[in-house]
């Protein structure tokens, strides 16, 4: 009995994949503006946020999506984890955008930003020293008040 259910499930998965692989070349390719894309992108992000998918929401909203040639959308990501998370939601995102913008040639390409500066968490002493470097009067004030920066 259980094997019949798993076979049925596999058949449904194959049908879903065939539907996703349908010929999109005969479907509409209505041009759209960046403003229209951004409005629909934000709508999708709002839906994702309502579903409680905060990580995906952050991934989709951190960097702006850019329109390239032939309705190719490019989104910059920070790391492989975001890429993996987006890959699971990519089909739903593309289906949403294609329907809403009436353009079935839309595709999404992601790239990982390799120029990300790693944020360094500063101690209170480090923060003070950076501020004092920009404004040397802070050291005089600290000495006059007898403050200790190593707390």
Essential attributes:
3-stranded mixed β-sheet, 6 helices, 151 residues, disordered N terminus, 3 strands, mainly alpha, GMP Synthetase, Chain A, domain 3, single chain
Description:
The chain is mainly alpha-helical and about 150 residues long. It has two domains: about 30-110, GMP Synthetase, Chain A, domain 3 (2-Layer Sandwich), CATH 3.30.300; about 120-150, no CATH class. It has six helices and three strands; from the N terminus they run H-H-H-E-E-H-E-H-H. A three-stranded mixed sheet has the order 1-2-3, covered by helices on one side. The longest helix is centred in the middle third of the chain and has 22 residues, at about 80-100.
> Which CATH class of the largest domain is shown?
Alpha Beta
**CATH architecture tag of the largest domain:** 2-Layer Sandwich
Number of domains as seen in the coordinates: 2
The main sheet comes to:
3 strands, mixed
